[in-house]
Structures are given as structure tokens and as C-alpha cells.
Amino acid sequence: xxxxxxxxxxxxxxxxxxxxxxxxxxxxxxxxxxxxxxxxxxxxxxxxxxxxxxxxxxxxxxxxxxxxxxxxxxxxxxxxxxxxxxxxxxxxxxxxxxxxxxxxxxxxxxxxxxxxxxxxxxxxxxxxxxxxxxxxxxxxxxxxxxxxxxxxxxxxxxxxxxxxxxxxxxxxxxxxxxxxxxxxxxxxxxxxxxxxxxxxxxxxxxxxxxxxxxxxxxxxxxxxxxxxxxxxxxxxxxxxxxxxxxxxxxxxxxxxxxxxxxxxxxxxx
Length: 269
Description:
alpha/beta; Metallo-beta-lactamase, Chain A; seven-stranded mixed beta sheet; globular; disordered N terminus
């Protein structure tokens, strides 16, 4: 897959990393001039779930070079949000997702198994394993979730939705930025998820330079709605626990819509 955006890049854009957390598992990754959008949830609702975070900024998802779709659960592969994308936007997704996506108008889908790679411009995207239930409620998709590592001048690990898995430790020392889920949208988490404590353990296993908590504080069921003041608690707890377990890993808690640039450092292989 080649980059689809036609634009002039500054020297800093050609070799640099910035991320904007747009809420839940939706992150805009800008890596060496390539714009990758993860698990797009862009509207005010996902089924009965209401968006508690501020709206996605206008233009935040323009000129996207590819979408990284971890799995087909409704709060990660939202039909309405996918329709907001240009139908020609390349999508990198797990094996079995292409048929479902083509029915939603997305024509360019590259399916990857864990360990397989695709290229987007100068960025290498590799699928990783994920420990999370497959499929989609009331639909027979048979699609096993994955995570992704996007690598160029720096390396970003997007976990998607997962619990701890044995191969996670294989990422140790190769990741500059880890985007780790720490909560969800309900009062409890089912199997196949990271809570703040297990996410801190994941940070210890991966040992990235920086970890950013995602999959928290964005969506809530309307019965009953949680107080906004409690929505940040899982992210703050993750930061506290990670500082205890993995003192060498920096944690940055972003507000929805907040952008962060990561300065390049020597890779610690």
C-alpha cells in the first residue's frame, strides 16, 4: 500500500512521530509523514453507547493514508464512522474482515495474520497477536483480533483490545510508544481486556519509552450514565501502577483530542 495523501511535507514531518488520542481506541498516528488512524469511532453514539468525551475535532481524520482496524466489535469497527471515511482509504485488518468491510463500502482491504506485514508509504505495519474474543455480536465473522506495530524512524505498538498474552514480552526493547487499553465503557470488564493493573504489567513486559492509556473515558451506556469526574480514574490508576512496576516507562495521560509529539531517541535493542 502506498501513501494516498498528496501534500508537501516539512523535514520534521518526514521523520517524526506525533499521536492524537481522539477517544476510546481511536488514535491518529503521524509517523514520518504517514497518517494512520486506528479503530475509528468518530460520532456521538455507538449503538446505545453515548460519547462522553468532546467531539472529534473537524479535520482530525482528513488525508488518512490507512486505517488500522484491530477487530470487528462494534466499539472498534463502527459502521457510521467507517462511512465517514473516503471509500478508497486503505484498511489493514485481521484475516476474515475484508468481506464485512467491503459490504460497508471500503474497497481496499489488506488482511494480515499475526507476524505478517504491509507497507504504507515508508511505514512498515506488522500485525501482532491479541487475546480478545473474536467475532461480532449477532454476526458470523470468524475474525480473530490483532494488534499492530507501525515502524519507521520510531515504532508504535497499538494493542487494539487485548488481555496479556505470552508473546507480548517479545516486543520488549523495540517499542518507542505503546498505546495500551486500560478500561472500557461499562462498570466491569469481560474476558480479553486489560484493566489498569494488567495494563501496567503489559507496560513492564514491553518496556516502551512512553505508554499512553487508551480505551477509557469515552463511551458510556445511558443507564446509568457515569459521572464525568470518574471517567479518568482508570487512566490515572494505570499511570500510578506503571510508575511502581516499571519506573523506566514514562506515562502520559492524554485528554481526548490532545496531540503529543515524541522526540526520537536511540533504539534500545
